[in-house]
Design brief:
- 57% of the residues lie in helices and 13% in strands.
- The protein has 213 residues and is of the alpha/beta class.
- The chain has one domain: P-loop containing nucleotide triphosphate hydrolases (Rossmann fold), CATH 3.40.50.
- It has a 5-stranded parallel β-sheet with strand order 2-3-1-4-5, with helices on both faces.
- The protein is globular.
- Ligand Z5A binds next to α1, α4, α6 and α8.
């Protein structure tokens, strides 16, 4: 598939890293550059995928098998890709997606202990070679992010995990970034809001000028 100038941009990070907060900054950068974009999220992005999101995030007494979690994440992704992401990219629209498959490697892989080879097989089946062009990873110490998430209110099924789980998730994300240095930009999300926004603007301006230049 050839896509005009459309970019597939993903945003990743642990709990309370500031992804949602900084989406507005990224959107402003795209608007200033005159780029037509669509903002979406995972798990979710279509009515069916949002239902799967609820299944994944709802607190429950029943233990959820890691493979069930993995398959739900990819079921939602298959629907999202077919209904939203591929049509947008094919129409030349940049896609800005809050979380994608790096989250699966971090949460179900590093967090839950599922082997990367298993995730890679599903990735190939569902994505047919599609990878993000750019991934902004909001990285910060786990305790800082959890404290921010807790102050915000109710915790979902993932946010109620133990500290060690989030440490593995963080390491999983950083491992993904070192495996894909061209694609990843790491944002130091432990800084204050203004400093984080300024890093995001610098990254977006540099990366957009490379793509459009
Ligand atoms: N998941 C999965 O397991 N497998 C998969 O394949 C996928 C996902 C795709 C839903 O994600 C869950 O799905 C996720 C992994 C799993 N785990 N959880 N939970 P989500 O993205 O919807 O939810 P989230 O990770 O919980 O997002 P979040 O906690 O909302 O984080 P955030 O968007 O990065 O943070 P925020 O809302 O922008 O900021 C949190 C608070 O901190 C807020 O009050 C801000 O005002 C404050 N904040 C933000 N930045 C700063 C700075 N710099 N200083 C001070 N305060 C700040």
């Amino acid at each position: 598939m050839r896509r005009k100038q459309a970019q597939f941009i993903t945003i990743e990070g642990g709990e309370g890293a500031g992804k949602s907060t900084n989406i507005a900054v990224i959107q402003a950068c795209l608007q200033t550059a005159g780029i037509d974009y669509l903002h979406t999220r995972e798990p979710g992005g279509t009515p069916l995928a949002e239902e799967i999101r609820n299944l994944l995030l709802t607190q429950r007494t029943e233990q959820v098998a890691p493979d069930a979690e993995l398959l739900m994440a990819f079921a939602a992704r298959a629907q999202h890709l077919n209904q939203v992401i591929w049509p947008a990219l094919e129409a030349g629209t940049t896609v800005l997606c809050d979380r994608f498959t790096d989250a699966t490697f971090a949460y179900q892989g590093a967090g839950r202990g599922i082997e990367d080879t298993k995730i890679t097989q599903l990735e190939q089946l569902v994505q047919q070679g599609l990878q993000p062009d750019l991934t902004l990873l909001f990285d910060l110490p786990v305790e800082v992010g959890l404290e921010r998430a807790r102050q915000r209110g109710d915790l979902d099924r993932f946010e109620s995990e133990q500290l060690a789980f989030f440490e593995r998730v963080r390491e999983g994300y950083l491992a993904r970034a070192s495996l894909n240095p061209q694609r990843f930009e790491i944002i130091d999300a432990s800084q204050d809001l203004a400093a984080v926004a300024s890093q995001v603007r610098e990254v977006m301006s540099r990366r957009l000028s490379q793509t459009n230049g």
